Amino acid sequence: MKDPHPSAREFVVRVLNRADAGQVARQLRSAGIVEPLTGHADLYVVNLTSEAPDAKEGWTQIKNLVGPSAQVSPVLVDPDGTRRYAVGNVVARFSKTPSKLDMESLSKLGLQVQSQSKFAPEQVKLGQREPSEQFLPDVLRSLHKSMPHVSAWLETLSAFKRS
């Protein structure tokens, strides 16, 4: 199965401080249609009025609107059109429990451990130290390049339809 691709039109915006949510939503409306992501008070989905040339340019456009008060991630689209809403974290699975050296390597990439699975200690959830500054697909590529022994993916929410 092909990997999902980042959308150049749809983005998830995570407000970093809930007190800023109203202001961020107003700023986003100048770029396109804004809808809250159901069940997640700090997440919005933005559908740009016009598609950006690529996902990174769309990300830059939205990031420039909201500044450091929100983290922006592209919606990932599966080949069948299913949307996966990136929530701003990376999940990494090591072959064994990550070492101190592994943690230092993650830190050099601007990532920090948010949690480690109790039942699978080789799996960690990572957040960005500066969440509004790096395009998550670029962070993921850097992680794959510098640590090829680690499986990593963006943490996403999905909505499925019954058939």
Radius of gyration from the alpha-carbon trace, in angstroms: 16 Å
**Average pLDDT number:** 92
Helix content: 25-40%
Q: Which consecutive residue ranges, at least 5 long each, have pLDDT under 50?
A: none
Write a concise keyword list for the protein shown above:
globular; Alpha-Beta Plaits; single chain; alpha+beta; 25% helix; eight-stranded antiparallel β-sheet; 163 residues
Please explain how this structure is put together:
A hairpin with a 6-residue loop joins strand 6 (about 110-115) and strand 7 (about 125-130). By secondary structure, this protein is of the alpha+beta class. About 25% of the residues are buried. The longest helix is centred in the middle third of the chain and has 12 residues, at about 55-65. The chain has helices spanning about 20-30, 55-65, 100-110, 135-145, and strands at about 5-15, 30-35, 45-50, 70-75, 85-95, 110-115, 125-130, 150-160. It is built from 4 helices and 8 strands; from the N terminus they run E-H-E-E-H-E-E-H-E-E-H-E.
Please sum up the structure shown.
With 163 residues, the protein is an alpha+beta fold. The chain is 25% helix and 37% strand.
Strand and helix map with partners:
Layout: E1 5-15, H1 21-29, E2 32-36, E3 43-48, H2 55-66, E4 70-77, E5 83-93, H3 100-108, E6 111-116, E7 123-128, H4 136-146, E8 151-158
Antiparallel strand pairs: 1-3, 1-4, 2-3, 4-5, 5-7, 5-8, 6-7
